[in-house]
Design brief:
Elements: E1 9-15, E2 18-23, H1 29-38, H2 50-53, H3 60-71, H4 77-87, E3 97-100, E4 103-106, H5 107-134, E5 139-141, H6 144-150, E6 154-158, E7 161-169, H7 172-184, E8 192-198, E9 204-206, E10 209-211, H8 214-228
Parallel strand pairs: 7-8
Antiparallel strand pairs: 1-2, 3-4, 5-6, 6-7, 9-10
Helix pairs in contact: 1-5, 3-4
């Protein structure tokens, strides 16, 4: 008897007290790019709030990937931010302020920060699928833990060697963000880090977003070749 599980869940297993839920793939690269092309983006030019900028809030990437897992599609900016507010227990109908760890912050300031992170999150998930479908690697992995705690955007394995790919867009903000990440990250398991530096002008425009493509794949393969020698 062939019975399909609901919600596209392939398996749930518990091992040593840890729960793992396995879902079917939500998309292929073509479908993903079609989704991205239709997404609105209104994050340009939003005013920074220094109090928000200098506070360590829970990572935006957790909500972003959770929503992809839940809906099998990339969340638009409104769903992404509204869900983040829910995770912080923020009432969006307040007077524009919210409390976090005993201090008050601006919702608009938080939105400006969240929406600046949004294109980068989209760029990472797109490049993951781009590398996966390139068939150049034995394994392509994204790990939220490795991303946030070790600064590695994507893990790839080629000829039995695993490399952590850190994507660095060559802007002042990109360089500052990379330096900030380096202060809190510790590369585990002797993973070799490859910093993939990309000029913004090299990115491929898709709708409102700028993505990595075959040119960055070629550079990554070249970097891997250099690293191995």
């Amino acid at each position: 008897m062939n019975i399909e599980f609901q919600k596209n869940i392939k398996d749930i297993y518990i091992e040593n007290g840890n729960w793992t839920i396995v879902r079917s793939s939500f998309s292929n690269l073509v479908q993903l790019e079609q989704q991205i092309a239709k997404l609105p983006y209104n994050g340009c030019g939003l005013k920074k709030d220094e109090a928000v900028e200098n506070t360590l809030f829970p990572p935006f990437l957790q909500v972003f990937y959770y929503l992809i897992y839940q809906h099998k599609s990339i969340p638009n900016e409104e769903l992404y931010f509204s869900e983040y507010l829910k995770w912080l227990n923020v009432d969006p109908k307040t007077n524009g302020q919210f409390a976090y760890q005993g201090n008050m912050y601006s919702i608009e300031g938080l939105k400006a920060r969240a929406l600046r992170a949004y294109p980068s999150l989209i760029r990472d998930i797109h490049f993951y699928y781009f590398l996966l479908e390139s068939k150049e690697f034995e394994n392509v992995k994204y790990s939220m833990h490795a991303d946030y705690y070790e600064g590695l955007d994507i893990l790839v394995t080629r000829q039995d060697v695993t490399y952590g790919v850190s994507i660095l867009i060559n802007t002042k903000r990109g360089a500052a963000f990379k330096k900030l990440k380096e202060r809190r990250h510790n590369y585990e398991n002797n993973i070799k880090e490859i910093i993939l530096k990309v000029d913004f002008s090299e990115l491929h425009k898709n709708g409102n977003f700028y993505l990595l493509d075959k040119e960055q794949l070629k550079r990554l393969l070249s970097e891997i070749g250099t690293t191995k020698t």
